[in-house]
Design brief:
The complex is a heterooctamer, with two copies of chain A, two copies of chain B, two copies of chain C and two copies of chain D.
Chain B: H1 3-11, H2 29-39, E1 44-48, H3 52-57, E2 69-71, H4 77-94, E3 104-110, H5 112-116, H6 119-128, E4 133-138, E5 164-165, E6 168-169, H7 178-183, E7 189-194, H8 198-209, E8 215-220, H9 224-228, H10 234-243, E9 250-253, E10 256-259, H11 270-273, H12 287-310
Parallel strand pairs in B: 1-2, 1-3, 3-4, 4-8, 7-8
Antiparallel strand pairs in B: 5-6, 7-9, 9-10
Helix pairs in contact in B: 1-2, 2-8, 4-6
Chain C: E1 33-37, H1 47-51, E2 57-60, E3 63-67, H2 77-81, E4 87-91
Antiparallel strand pairs in C: 1-4, 2-3
Chain D: E1 2-9, H1 14-27, E2 31-36, E3 46-54, E4 69-72, E5 92-96, E6 108-112, H2 114-118, H3 124-135, H4 140-151, H5 157-171
Helix pairs in contact in D: 1-3, 1-4, 3-4, 3-5, 4-5
The chains are: A alpha/beta, B alpha/beta, C alpha+beta, D alpha/beta.
The complex binds thiamine diphosphate (TPP) (2 copies), iron/sulfur cluster (SF4) (6 copies) and magnesium ion (MG) (2 copies).
Chain lengths: 385, 311, 95, 172, 385, 311, 172, 95
């Protein structure tokens, strides 16, 4: 049911996924490094190979706002952004989640200003980690494509109905050409299926009031619905992933252990770094070291129980954050500390790759061999914690 | 059938905005909403910006709205309606609408959500040419948050962020000319109306709703709280606003200006200012100079507008 | 307003439908005066209907019939716009 | 600790009353807090405000659920809201009225015809603050002084004092 | 050196502090519940009692942008916001920190939409917790005033040079009138001193390029400067607080223990709730229960070492979050888990007060007596974690 | 002394923007920057929006700027300059400036940072009346991110987000009339210029810099990459843009319109379009209709402008 | 694993070459990766691209620091950038030139006068990809096929094939 | 560009001053042609100076003297704007 592998960048692969999904509405605003995605889709539309309505908005705040309007009106809606774009629309990402607008958004992760920088880190995703939007991270272009196809199913599932962000590392994946196997168009289309939401704004016979004002007597409860939807997203994702597996032979899980059996030192990370870590794990395993990796496919929801089960008997867990929080704990580390609280795990925090700083296998090896500083690759001794 | 009867027929016993909402006693907004929605002869979908109208009509789990209504945030109503309108087109194309037939997409936003924080989204939507009618109910300040100065607040007005005092005479700048800004977008229909002149308003809505593209309506709407007047004086104050040419009623159709109302006698702008507490400080002390400045400015603007209308 | 309900019972995303809940009785906001009509003077121009901020002017078809005191806030606008002075503001008996 | 709830319509001076009474007690060496309740409702809508008084420093910031005294500035509110909601077991209702309505039967209701006493001055709130001082056995002067401190910039001092004292006299 | 206590709301108290500081530039945009602050200051200016230039911007994004411009041009700059305002300016808050613009901002904490709500929770502050801006939380109006006076000193200290947010609970503090003792105007003014920054943009003889583009070769290092500044902020705050103590008799610390000695159950929280907890602690202590409180005055920087020292020998620590993170750990809990990782402390997570939901002493008592659910005051059984 | 010599003197051997930056070979922007800064006879402080100019001139730890320069983000240059200008006034008032004397506050932003994402901040700053000169170097697309459509992109242009193809003929909407929008703000000085006409540009800068309030300059600036032309054709293309009346040169001083240049003979708009690859698709297949539509639109706009200038 | 670095100016087809060569090897059953380097520099500036080839699946996503082969499309770059930076110990420099300049003395430099071979066709990159195939002992057809697959939509197939083959012939 | 420095050595907030670092030599961007002037034809109108995107036209006072090939990118604009065709683009010897 699949096509032959082609050389595609992550950005192109996601544009292909969008072509196959053929969403009704695509609000778009350029920003490096996601731009190839919207350009790719716009080209498909100009070629008559996709039929969605493009909305060339004037800012990312409007991109997400238009996306909410379209999604709640009953149209399948996809957009894409990076960095400052995500920051500018942050306000509305929260609202999309609370209004249960199943907007899908491709994110090409990029460092937040300042200083302004166009390369990868995860600070943009981290900025919206409380928003109620689901965040799945791809390790490579193939995964970006696959997750993009799964995204609408997850977003639109009646138990979920939340925005879904498919995150890929800017440049490292968005602009890196790798072999990607696509599903056949009709298979993909059928997998994704029809868009359905419970309340269409356009149903003028049964008018709805959407986005009302909530006082303290109701806000807490309405907000809690989102928590429940996030919880529900974990099993729904596993189900969609297994349906996708049946079509593609590629299987995803919200957390993906690699060589964790018997490991006494594991790394936890997100995104493209996972691939590099796997290589290092293989090398070290070959050298007899009991090391492993836990890759988080899903960062939001964070599969707390699975993380704990996977890691609670491991001596040392090194968390690799590609973002930091000045004056606070790095975001992924803090999540892991919360998830592993009460276990005996020796948890360590590493920050790497900010603003596109490269991470080499030797540096990963140093984490495993406990020769690494907490800020991997930083020039100069880090300021004392 | 008289126009008013038509509105009644269109409303058919179900006002778009029912009573029991929490807007102030005597608030000028609901009349604008009803005149507009009742004039439009298709189903209407409303997108609201944050503001008095939104906050006071939709306290969960209640709603005062009998038409589909959507609110996302303060600054993005025009972007939201873009999405809704495009969704409508996309669904119409592939046959996915809940029911067929045209829908009018209506935005209701205050002056803050139009002149200031909502301007960019509006400008973008106008440039893209979505089919929608954007109505600014212009009460000349941020009322919902307690009467702060907006881009629409007139020169000299006392607000809580442009307070008058020994060292200040109220707002230091002239109001933004939002109607002119809309006109500069070269959209098919732009007009300025006032809630005192319902028939004029209703006629404009009719033309706006049938425009082939975006339409913009700027409606001067009284706010007893922010302007500082008893509700019962609303109409006379608004009338003075119009008759002093402070707020001329006109429309711009495909770039052509037309006055839709010409005062029989132009009244001094003081008649507009004096009944409103927000201008009270201008009638004491150094205010006289400001009053002259206001009159001069109104005269200049009126002259310029009249010239544009003649041509 | 209905009983405060648990989070699972609330509509998804806080979507409300008209009629789900009865409108609050804002008639209590009146502070002393309420409108009454002398129907014999009324020429049924319906201006009061249009200008009432609280949709409190009741019609039967297209005919003015009276006020909905449950929601009328007593703002006096109807009385002001009435071209024939058919509406008077009178002492509110709190009914 | 004493907790007081004020009922009025927006614009009738409940917030001022709540702060004014707090100011008086502050000057008498007590610890105080005063806060109104906020919602989307506008001018004319029912509104609550609260005052908390204690001999020890007040540190808590929770809402007042069981007031010791409820002061009702606007009698018509009795039809609309349950002014006795959560009233402490031997709590007092201080009402702007000639006589207690049947609906409050069985409660300790103190009536002050504040509107009549205030006359055109619109100082219904001051009259009731005065009455409250009487109910709680506070010195009337402290209240009057506080009222002058807060409002004296705009209103004649003796008018203020008179209103407070008249209210006090009603119930002392 | 102090005046007599007056009844002031938190908003009024901060406006008084601003009058005394008399900043050069005040960009402002209204939003409930911070509006009383800017209105208060605008009134002082209109009365001739303060002299700052008001900039009536058209959105909060512009408020912070204008603030950055003014601060870097050499003018002391203060602004204020809440909720959606903070969300809309989030992008620029990060940039302010990275450009080392010592802007002071009063925050009236309010829940983020949606649903739209005007009451207190801390989700707005949490949204910018990675931004590099300092965040101090006041327990009451007096503290809000005091911290506001300390803020410029902290922000402008050459080792710090970061934006400082003085957070107070919306309505609960901003609109609650309490006794507040002000410093004398001249004392306050002298305490605050003159504004000085290292590089004035207006110095046309020695032109600077501010806000350049950084590639992966420099971004990580520039970002790390902010971490160092945050670290430095802790001792600087203690120093400023002790100078302030000398003037006022009121002493602040970045973490403030209350009855922690010998406690075997402690609550950790931010903001006005601290006061209510203190009452409950006193009651329970009187009943012989060994309970206590750790109040965080400084949330950013989070005084990790002090937190750890204060809590690491306590059996149970209950963290009260007034914000949540759907699909993840509540923000304060995650920080505490990170700070206390490796200790034996039994850490518990509670979420309360979202969208202004009240928190009663009985409910706090239930936390101490282990009778409380994880979502305090939520109607309906919380969704299983 | 000739105007050009004056510019040379003002520059005094230290170009505001030195060579060695990373803008494309033949980029049109630097000439605009230098003409402007060199014309202004006071010290200048520049605020830049994100875009080609910003990204390519300030790679840390280098800078190509010899004047004070500030960049904060993409959408907020006008807000940032508001803060800078107000700080200047505040410091001047209390004697806290590093040195005395007037400073000209200059914003340099691309069309994206002006017409679209930066519009609201600009509109607010204009309403508040700050003293600054906002220059849009209008290359008619988001160039920095790889030639995407902006509000300034002309109808029919092929960009990466409005690509031409069997199902699309390039951008579907007319360009936003940003100059008209600025005029609608009733500020003292607004003008439209082109980098081909340096003298006209320089004269406008001179008037703009001396305006009593905000000034806005919209400068058509070629981009070899985005327009698809060899650098050496820049001037002739721009000339055709001006001579076809696609981009008239005019100014609006205190509301009064004036053409600052009238083409001797108006050339067909095709002369502007044909040398640019972004319009290449219009010269094949169904493009002819689009070409006619473009010519018609240009004619209409020109007529309207000419009328305004006469009056 | 083989790691290749491409040097050119923006617009000279280094990115295409990097992907094209990867495509060829993909079709030969290998695992591949190709990526350019991005900065603020515009058209005309020096630019690098990379290709990574392996028999096992490539999972790593770090930069290429020690290329096995460096392909220099634009000889003038030799004055500007250190094209040999990090070159693997027995790495190869494949240069668009007639002869190796003195500056590269001591290195394994293979020269192809690609500009001359390509003539007006502007297929310098294709000629060099062909030459690279020769250097790495790949079948030339796979490369030519890949080139046609990627570029054949716009350019005559035989022109493409000729360019690749000419390059290949130079060094095989 | 200087050596890559440790974070403590970098200017606070990334502020740069002109002259801190020498400009990169973008002369290398030229792809084949470079401008040369026939000074005898030059009428010193300075249009080349104004239009050069790379500030590569060198003056002595107000007099044209030549090109700064370290930064000239060879765009040909100077040659195009020269009213007297005093500038020619010639084969770049890579100097
Ligand atoms: C981003 C953001 N900033 C500020 C606010 C606060 N706010 C809500 S409504 C409002 C004023 C609305 O003014 P206007 O649009 O004129 O409507 P009106 O209140 O007059 O009805 C403000 C400032 C907000 N909700 N969101
Ligand atoms: C909020 C935000 N959205 C998007 C971007 C990405 N971006 C940077 S510059 C740019 C285009 C700039 O276009 P324009 O203003 O026309 O300047 P030009 O590139 O043409 O010089 C874009 C889309 C950004 N930096 N910030
Ligand atoms: S404040 Fe003004 S606009 Fe708002 S509800 Fe009241 S009267 Fe209407
Ligand atoms: S008094 Fe006001 S609210 Fe009541 S019916 Fe008349 S217009 Fe309506
Ligand atoms: S306004 Fe007067 S005349 Fe007209 S319908 Fe109402 S009551 Fe009758
Ligand atoms: S892309 Fe265009 S605008 Fe940008 S640097 Fe190159 S030529 Fe200049
Ligand atoms: S060729 Fe271009 S860069 Fe070189 S001097 Fe001439 S104009 Fe300047
Ligand atoms: S443009 Fe030509 S004539 Fe003018 S200064 Fe340059 S070389 Fe001389
Ligand atoms: Mg308003
Ligand atoms: Mg541009």
């Amino acid at each position: 049911m699949a096509t032959e592998a082609r050389i595609l960048t992550g950005g192109q692969a996601v544009a292909e996924a969008m072509r196959q999904i053929d969403p009704d509405v695509v609000p778009m605003y350029p920003i490096t490094p996601q731009t190839p995605i919207i350009q790719g889709f716009a080209t498909f539309v100009a070629q008559g190979r996709a039929h969605g309505e493009l909305v060339d908005v004037e800012s990312e705040h409007s991109a997400m706002s238009a996306a909410i309007g379209a999604a709640l009106a009953g149209a399948r809606t996809i957009t894409a952004t990076s960095s400052q774009g995500l920051a500018l629309m942050a306000e509305v990402v929260y609202i999309a989640a609370s209004m249960r607008a199943p907007v899908v958004m491709a994110v090409g992760n990029r460092a937040l200003s300042g200083p302004i920088n166009i390369h990868c880190d995860h600070s943009d995703s981290m900025l919206v980690r409380d928003s109620g939007a689901i965040q799945l991270f791809a390790e490579n272009a193939q995964e970006a494509y696959d997750l993009m196809l799964i995204a609408p199913r997850l977003a639109e599932h009646p138990d979920v109905l939340l925005p879904v962000l498919i995150c890929q590392d800017g440049f490292t994946i968005t602009h890196s050409a790798e072999p990607v196997v696509l599903l056949e168009d009709d298979v993909a289309r059928e997998f994704v299926g029809e868009y359905r939401i419970p309340n269409s704004l356009l149903d003028v016979r049964y008018p709805t009031t959407q986005g009302p004002f909530a006082m303290p007597d109701y806000y807490f409860e309405l907000r809690h619905q989102q928590l429940a939807a996030m919880q529900a997203a974990l099993p729904v994702f596993e189900q969609m992933a297994s349906e996708f597996y049946a079509l593609s032979g590629r299987r995803y899980h919200s957390v993906e252990p690699y060589a964790l059996d018997g490991a006494d030192h594991a790394i936890v990370c997100l995104g493209s770094t996972g691939g590099t870590v796997k290589d290092v794990v293989d090398e070290l395993r070959a050298e007899g070291e009991a090391v492993g990796l836990l890759e988080l496919r899903s960062f939001r929801p964070l599969p707390r129980h699975d993380v704990r089960t996977a890691l609670d008997s491991i001596r040392t867990v090194s968390v690799l954050d590609r973002a930091d929080s000045p004056g606070g704990a790095p975001p992924l580390f803090a999540e892991l500390a919360a998830a592993l609280h009460g276990t005996e795990v020796d948890l360590r925090s590493f920050v790497y790759g900010l603003g596109g700083r490269d991470l080499h296998p030797e540096q990963i090896r140093a984490v495993f061999t406990e020769d690494s500083g907490a800020y991997i690759g930083l020039r100069g001794a880090p300021c004392p914690a | 059938m008289s126009r008013l009867k038509t509105l009644v027929r269109n409303e058919a016993g179900t006002p778009p905005l029912r009573g029991g909402h929490a807007l102030c006693q005597g608030c000028g907004i609901p009349m604008v909403v009803r005149t507009i929605v009742d004039t439009i002869d298709t189903p209407v979908v409303v997108v609201s910006a944050t503001g008095c109208l939104e906050v006071a009509t939709t306290r969960f789990p209640t709603t005062a709205w009998n038409v589909p209504w959507l609110h996302v945030a303060f600054e993005n109503a025009a972007a939201v309606v873009s999405g809704v309108e495009v969704a409508y087109r996309a669904l119409a194309k592939r046959g996915g609408l809940p029911q067929d037939g045209p829908i009018t997409f209506l935005v209701l936003a205050g002056d803050g959500g139009t002149y200031d924080i909502g301007l960019q989204a509006l400008s973008g939507a106008l440039e893209r040419g979505h089919h929608f009618l954007f109505v600014c109910y212009d009460n000349e300040a941020y009322m919902n948050t307690g009467v702060q100065r907006s881009g629409a607040t007139p020169f000299g007005a006392n607000t809580t962020t442009s307070p008058a005092g020994v060292a200040a005479l109220g707002k230091a700048q002239q109001r933004k000319d939002m109607t002119a800004i809309a006109v500069a977008h070269h959209i098919p229909y732009v007009a300025q109306a006032a809630s005192s002149h319902w028939q004029d308003l209703s006629e404009k809505v009719e033309r706006a709703a049938h425009a082939d593209g975006p339409a913009f309506l700027n409606v001067l709407t009284n706010c007893p709280v922010g302007w500082g007047h008893e509700p019962r004086h609303a109409i006379e104050i608004l009338n003075a606003g119009v008759d002093s040419c402070y707020w001329p009623l006109y429309e711009v159709v495909d770039g052509r200006y037309r006055l839709t109302y010409t005062p029989e006698t132009i009244v001094p702008v003081e008649e507009w200012l004096r009944p409103q507490k927000r201008f009270a400080h201008l009638f004491t002390g150094e205010g006289a100079a400001v009053l002259r400045e206001i009159q001069r400015h109104v005269d200049d603007e009126w002259e310029a507008l009249a010239a544009r209308c003649e041509s | 307003m209905p009983e405060l309900t648990a989070w699972r019972e609330l509509p998804l995303g806080g979507v409300v439908r008209p009629g789900d809940t009865a409108p609050p009785h804002t008639g209590g906001w009146r502070t002393g005066l309420k409108p009454v009509v002398r129907l014999e003077s009324c020429v049924n121009c319906l201006l009061c209907w249009l200008y009432c901020p609280d949709s409190a002017v009741q019609l039967d078809g297209t005919t003015f019939v009276g006020f909905d005191y449950d929601v009328c806030k007593g703002c006096e606008l109807c009385a002001v716009v009435c071209p024939v002075d058919a509406i008077a503001m009178v002492e509110d008996d709190g009914d | 600790m004493k907790e007081i709830r004020w009922h009025a319509r927006a614009g009738q001076g409940a917030k001022t009353a709540s702060q004014l009474y707090a100011t008086a007690r502050l000057h008498e060496g007590q610890s105080v807090q005063a806060f109104p309740e906020y919602g989307p409702e506008r001018r004319g809508a029912p509104l609550r405000a609260y005052t908390r008084i204690d001999d020890k420093p007040i540190r808590r910031h929770d809402a007042i659920m069981h007031p010791d005294v409820v002061v009702v500035l606007e009698p018509s509110l009795l039809h609309e809201v349950d002014v006795t909601e959560g009233l402490a077991p031997d709590g007092i209702v201080l009402l702007n009225a000639d006589t207690a309505p049947a609906s409050l039967a069985g409660l300790d209701v103190r009536c002050v015809p504040a509107a009549r006493i205030a006359g055109d001055s619109k100082f219904v709130n001051l009259v009731l603050v005065g009455a409250l001082a009487a109910v709680l056995h506070d010195p009337v002067d402290a209240v009057a002084d506080a009222a002058i401190e807060l409002l004296g910039g705009k209103v004649a001092h003796d008018e203020i004092r008179t209103a407070v004292e008249k209210g006090y006299a009603c119930l002392s």
